[in-house]
Write a structure and sequence with these properties.
about 230 residues, alpha+beta, Structural Genomics Hypothetical 15.5 Kd Protein In mrcA-pckA Intergenic Region, Chain A, four-stranded antiparallel beta sheet, 6 helices, elongated
């Protein structure tokens, strides 16, 4: 088994994060620094920062309705509040699947299943995420068309998206926006590209799976049906 998959299945971090741990020289196999792409066999001793890693066979899956004011990281070098502080005691060594910005609310998954985290976050799988977006003022059909077709961010067009206006008045417009990418602050920057300011942003769905009645800041285990759905997206 590849070393990054072994670490991910052991609940250390996502595969991408494990690749960085390996590149930084923090992972050893049988006392020697691990290399990217290295295979691990039964009986090999794997350590991260000198601590032994044991592969898990059963995984945990949780859903959080993230409030704003928290960062999606295990530790923060700026000493800000992290989503890990909202998890109930005794859940084990979990990591967030993907990220939501500090000021963004909504659906956030946690697991120690590196394969599922990789599947849900890798761009090639084009897993759809839907957001509730509130912007100042109105928006024209031309601007909506630009957003749906793709706008340029960092020299590259965003993928096609689906956007639907769900409410509007003289001051604000609310929309449902579905994308399958995960660029940094993508939804906010998409609207900035057409001159619109986002005042509220909440992820409400991953695929067709939503938050249901989960309150802001609350956490619960995923059901067997939800786990099956996510692993088969």
């Amino acid at each position: 088994m590849r070393i990054n998959k072994y670490l991910a299945e052991s609940g250390v971090a996502s595969r991408r994060a494990c690749d960085k741990l390996i590149a930084d020289g923090r992972v050893k196999v049988n006392g020697k620094p691990a290399s990217l792409g290295e295979d691990v066999a039964d009986g090999d001793e794997v350590t991260v920062d000198g601590k032994p890693v044991q592969r898990r066979t059963a995984h945990s899956y949780y859903l959080m309705n993230k409030p704003k004011g928290y960062v999606c990281t295990v530790k923060d070098d700026k000493d800000r509040k992290t989503v890990m502080q909202l998890l109930p005691a005794g859940v084990g060594r979990l990591f967030p699947v993907g990220r939501l910005d500090y000021d963004t609310e909504g659906m956030l998954l946690f697991t120690d299943d590196g394969d599922l985290a990789f599947r849900l976050t890798h761009p090639k799988n084009e897993i759809e995420k839907t957001y509730l977006v509130k912007i100042e003022g109105g928006i024209t059909d031309v601007e909506l068309g630009r957003l749906c077709s793709g706008v340029e961010l960092d020299g590259k067009l965003t993928g096609k998206s689906r956007i639907r206006v769900v409410a509007a008045d003289k001051r604000f417009t609310k929309l449902h926006v579905t994308i399958h990418e995960g660029r940094n602050r993508q939804v906010r920057r998409m609207f900035e590209a057409v001159g619109k300011h986002v005042v509220f942003l909440k992820r409400i769905k991953i695929g067709d799976m939503g938050l249901g009645s989960l309150e802001r800041g609350a956490v619960r285990k995923l059901t067997a049906e939800e786990i099956f759905y996510l692993t088969n997206l």
